[in-house]
Design brief:
The chain has 341 residues and is mainly alpha-helical. The protein has 15 helices and six strands. The strands form two sheets. The chain has a three-stranded antiparallel β-sheet. A three-stranded antiparallel β-sheet has the order 4-6-5.
Amino acid sequence: MEKFEAKLNKERELYRELFINSEKTFKELLKKLKSSFSCNKCNTCCKIRYSQLPPEEIFKLATDKNDEIAKCYMQLFLPYGAQEEFKYSRVSKIDVDYNNKQAKNVDDNKYEPYVAKILLKHENPVYFYYCKYLNSKNICASKDKRSFCKGFPNSISTILPESCSFKDWQKLVLNKIENEIEPEINLKTKEILDCKNRFKCARTGTCCKLASSEFSYEQLKQKAANNDNYARQFTEIFIPYKNFREARNIFPEYVDFLTQKTEKNKTINFYYCKHLTGENVCPIYEARPQICRDFPDNPLALFPPTCSYNAWKEETIVAAYILHTMTLIYDFYKEKINNSL
């Protein structure tokens, strides 16, 4: 058990480091691509700035957490619907409905109202603010061009007005993810899977004797009935053990390890192949289902120590983790960008 634990901790540290590096690389890419665009001075971001935080929460962030963005909001922006003597404080309440109504009245985009678009994309309340330095001629009267303004938008997922030139930045990033990065990830993933062909099964029988799933046999049968191809193949050859003890007797250390690493609110169920012989020989090997032919299909899975594919795992784990972190990061931002457009 200690060897399993030490190995898992080492992998966790590796994954954490690679995730941080992947996110850093992506943010550097965002910054580089953004540098090709510049503000077209439509000033909509000065006239209509949105946040899900009411004024009193912005005040708390600025004073209690020393948050720089919150500080800039307090220095530059006032909420719509506020009285002339308004000051940020812990009790500076603003009626959100009146705030939204006032912002809509200022929004001059008749074809695709900016305020309405923002509200449509948020389930929770949104508050609108305006820059107190924007004069009647729609020109910034402040002599100090703050980095907060120069850096807008500071997030690729900011919902921008149609007139903003940085919408093309968002579209460029999305295009790069879908047409350059994702195909490269898929290609590298295929290379890792192809690399597995250089290794051969040692026929320990562990994967046949201790197939595991978070789903019970009844749940898998129901999935199979609902045309889940994986569940159909699984239930055709695997049978559940009568009880946990029976499964544990096969490989106590491995079963205990998998059980302990399962999330607290989930269970793990063990199964065995009904075809496997006592000599760990598969009598249906040539006609075995695809799930058996593909196994193992992920070098990041937890293999038993006797599995010969541990060598494949060791050889490819760094590349596999990098691709995994990249997939998570790019999928996350792709969803955010799509939601903002």
